[in-house]
Amino acid sequence: MSENIIELRNLGKRYELPSTSLNVLAVRVKNIWALKDVTFEVKRGTITGIIGRNGAGKTTLLNIIAGTLSSSEGSLIIKGKVLGLFNLGVGFQDELSGKENIFLNAAILGARRREVEDKLDAIVEFSELGNFIHMPLGSYSQGMRLRLGFSIIANLEFDILVIDEVLAVGDSLFQSKCFQRLMEFKRSGKTLVITSQNMDLVRRLCDKVILLEHSRLLYDGAAEEGIHRYQHALATERFYVGQAYVSSGLVENTKKWAQDIEDWGKKLGTKEAVIEKVEFINRFGLRSNRIKTKDPLTIKVQCKVRNTIKDPHFGVAIFRRDGVYCYGPNTAFDGHVIEMMQPGKASFELRFKALLLAPGEYRFSLAIWDKDEALPFDYHNGCYVLYITGEDNNNNALLNVAYEAGPSGTIWSRIGRQIARKACIPRLPGQAQASLLNSDIAIDSVRLIDRKGRAQDVCMTTEDLRLEVKFLKFPEEKNNFSFWAGIYRDDGIYCQGVQMPIRRNAVSYALFPVFPLLPGDYVVRVGAWDHVQKKFILYENDALKFKMVFNHLDHGTVYLRHEWRWCIKAKT
To answer: Of 69, 301, 406, 467, whose Cβ has the fewest other Cβ atoms within 10 Å?
Structure first.
């Protein structure tokens, strides 16, 4: 019998929340138990799967095992060195080469430099990045970043590896290579604790599973039985998590990246229906693959239906050149029912009222899917290029959403955008600086305000919002300065910057009549820019964190108002 390497006894994790909140979506509770009375053991050299619904406590449990969170009650015994794999490539810096990021990431994970030097060749070989290892990380695709992040973990020394939902790494061949490495870990006596919603993966890898439900342990035993109980619970009981806000009926997250941009240009599908012609139509009704930012766009698609198809739907996906998923509407998401397509001709149109994307190059995927989107009839993956023109986008912002800016109660609210546009304030990269301090300037608060004047940290897609910044003090020569706020996704993608004129004893604001960010977690970074010295004299990375939710499913980062039209002509 293998010895226990992890032992939990009556483990619990409690979060204390304020009993009052200005957030209209917040539930007024005092104590939230993310885990309660959890007891189990993990034997050395085994793979244990932690399964359960979103919000059941899986990530909290893994963080406690990895040592990044402390428990509120109970005991935990760990017999060995633990590595936690929660976000591949934590601490990566775009300015550094892949090789330099190996040393940086490994140091954050607790590895000694000598260990990394000894393992460097193995890490590079496993990643299959070749000479790209000497290139700046900013030139990497998302798939290359994931390869590098997993390769570092795969070659470091540990006794216990804790993995949270990060096993979809790179293309299918590299994924297979990763799974093989996990099995090598097991054969060499390593212990793994993983979470995944992929039950086929859990069946293949895990010796046993821990099933969590409503923060408590529901089952501890054989993988197949645990999966059966989990699937039965999913089929028979709806789950409500009231930890931060009422989430019933609201979408809280969505897909943000292309699966693999190396597959762009490929056309896949069973070909019962075939896309024959695709056209981009500009505001003047002319065919063009180049439009201005915020202009309308119509996509016209002509198809040939070869066999009778039941319950199809049409889909379009827009990606930025680097693989960021901008928007992916389809007729199923939008509630349109197409009962049948019979052999003959068909066409569909997608009309965007205003393409709120910043200037740059974008790739479009188009598809005709089956009802469950399991297998496409025809799927053109990133086959169509659209160029969006406008002012220089040197900061690589993703969006170009209209807003009004200025100090409250002044004429700046009408002309603030025109002056701010000329300021040319650069975006600071990622976590390059936590803060820049100046004794002459201080910020009192940064808030998102809804239409009723209430501060929010959970906001609804497409509702109007105002980003407010209140200063405690500011230099007398205020004309030399502008205030900047950058809105970022939680993965560091720069969505949009806003620039606000500053006036003493006034609240600077940016008013968004429509706030179109799709569900997910976001952060606001703020700074004060000195136009004379051409640098930030104040910069804060995490001035405000907030979450977006929506009342229906969509993919991407920005909601773009649109409408569908289609025509199906059967052979006579």
So the answer is: 69
Q: Residue 150's closest CA among 183, 174, 114?
A: 174
Pull the structure tokens for residue 228.
């059966």
Contact 116, 104 (CB under 8 A): no
d(CA 76, CA 4): 12
Structure tokens at 122: 């193995």
pLDDT tens, position by position, 287-306: 999 999 999 999 999 999 99
Residue 38 shares a structural domain with residue 162: yes
Given a cut of 90, is residue 432 above it in pLDDT? no
Half-sphere exposure of 251 (CA within 13 A, CB side): 16
Average pLDDT estimate for 456-460: 90
232 and 288 inside one domain: no
* Under 8 Å between Cβ of 210 and 40: yes
Give residue-wise pLDDT tens across range 191-238: 999 998 888 778 878 899 999 988 899 999 999 889 888 887 776 554
Query: Are the beta carbons of 35 and 467 closer than 8 angstroms?
Result: no
294 domain residue, yes or no:
yes
- Report whether 501 contacts 405 (CB < 8 A): yes
* Same-domain status, 388 and 410: no
| Domain count across the chain | 3
Whether 180 and 33 share a structural domain: yes
With tokens 């029912």, the residue in question is 337
Query: Which residue carries 């469950």 as its tokens?
Result: 372
As a three-state string, the secondary structure of 80-103 is CCEEEECCCCCCCCCCCEHHHHHH
Residue 177 in this model has a pLDDT that exceeds 70: yes
Distance CA 364, CA 161 (A): 39
* Distance between start and end Cα atoms, the chain: 73
Buried/exposed code over 245-278 (b: 16+ C-beta within 10 A; e: otherwise): bebeebbbebebbbebbeebeeeebeebbbbeeb
What is the pLDDT confidence band of residue 414, given thresholds at 50, 70 and 90? Answer: very low
DSSP 316-351: EEEEETTSBEEE--BTTTTT----EE-SEEEEEEEE
Domain of residue 283, residue span? 261-392
Residue 514 pLDDT grade (very low, low, confident, very high; cuts 50, 70, 90)? confident
Give the whole-angstrom CA distance, residue 322 versus residue 555: 17
Residue-wise pLDDT for 516-529, tens only, equals 999 999 999 988 77
